[in-house]
Specification:
By secondary structure, the protein is α/β, with parallel strands linked by helices. It has a single domain, classed as TIM Barrel, CATH 3.20.20. It contains twelve helices and ten strands. It is globular and about 50 Å long.
Length: 318
């Protein structure tokens, strides 16, 4: 009988190197993109944040800061600035990048909302107020009337406050645009969001040409209002496409532009194709300024309303 060979003992495993990544990255599920270090932000906290949170809840107001899960909410709320979101919290469109709840109808129009927004602006002592909304394709005027009422209410409550409106495209309605622009907002903002090639996938119910026409027409109707728009990077665009879009925006009389990194709100939203480096954002900022924009805000954490008060001052000065 042959002796049964002994199985050699397995060599001891080398100890695994400790995972030194931040806890929030170690706990990410599969499929969630790990953010580079330049996208790290502090959790919202502090007296300023708590005070503003109390005002918004007490007046039953929505903010895009919360609904769109903005990464700058801690910084902005800590400084006493916020972007008011009127016309409810249900959007009649379903863009692939947006965290706001979507539905066929956005609910009844709350005509007391302009008064409450104005009260919040007054209590906060804002020098620059930003007002945006969900898309309301279910309304005859697409929500333009309540935008106009909100501008009037803020001016009455705090006459020295400059006002920026960040509107939907109003489905291309010039009547709706005229309703808003007749109130002469200091800044008329409408975001193009991304390059034209990606609209069908990212903004299926919108049209880049329509958005550009809206911005140009706003400037033609009221030259005293500064025009502004914004876009996100990381959705699959090329830098050449971004440069071409910036040229188109200038040709359509856009004066202020914001450029930031797209951050995926959840796994059901459009994936992040890549993280754009701070150096690339800086290059695009220089390119935009060379095109003649009065102000360009370009960086990974930039959002449409980020540093909006400073942008307003720069635009007016320009």
């Amino acid at each position: 009988m042959q002796p049964i060979p002994l199985t050699p003992s397995p060599s001891p495993r080398a100890p695994r190197a400790p995972d030194t990544r931040p806890l929030h990255q170690r706990l990410l599920p599969d499929g969630v993109e790990r953010r580079p270090p330049w996208l790290t932000v502090k959790l919202p906290a502090g007296d300023g944040y708590q005070r503003l949170h109390g005002i918004m809840r007490g007046l039953q107001l929505n903010t895009v800061c919360e609904e769109a899960r903005c990464p700058n909410i801690g910084e902005c709320w800590g400084r006493g600035t916020a972007t008011f979101m009127i016309l409810g919290d249900v959007c009649t469109r379903a863009c692939a990048f947006c965290a706001v709840t979507s539905g066929k109808r956005g609910g009844d129009v709350d005509w007391d909302e302009p008064r409450r927004v104005a009260e919040a602006v007054q209590r906060m002592g804002l020098r620059h107020a930003v007002v945006t909304s969900v898309d309301r394709d279910d309304l005859p005027d697409f929500g333009a009337g309540i935008f106009a009422a909100t501008i009037r209410a803020i001016r009455e409550a705090l006459p020295g406050c400059t006002i920026e409106v960040l509107t939907p495209d109003f489905n291309g309605s010039e009547d709706s645009l005229q309703t808003v622009i007749a109130e002469v907002p200091d800044i008329f903002n409408h975001n193009v969001e991304t390059v034209g090639r990606l609209y069908r996938r990212v903004r299926p119910k919108a049209d880049l040409r329509q958005s550009l026409r809206l911005l140009q027409r706003a400037k033609q109707l009221e030259p005293r209002s500064r025009t502004k728009s914004g876009l996100m990077l990381g959705l699959g665009e090329t830098l050449d496409e971004v440069r071409e879009l910036l040229r188109l925006m200038r040709e359509h009389d856009v004066e202020v532009v914001t450029i930031g990194q797209y951050l995926r709100p959840s796994l059901k939203h459009h994936p992040i194709i890549r993280f754009v480096s701070p150096e690339e954002f800086a290059e695009l900022g220089d390119y935009g300024r060379a095109l003649g924009f009065q102000h360009v805000e370009s960086g990974p954490l930039v959002r449409s309303s980020y540093h909006a008060a400073e942008q307003a001052v720069a635009a007016v000065a320009g």
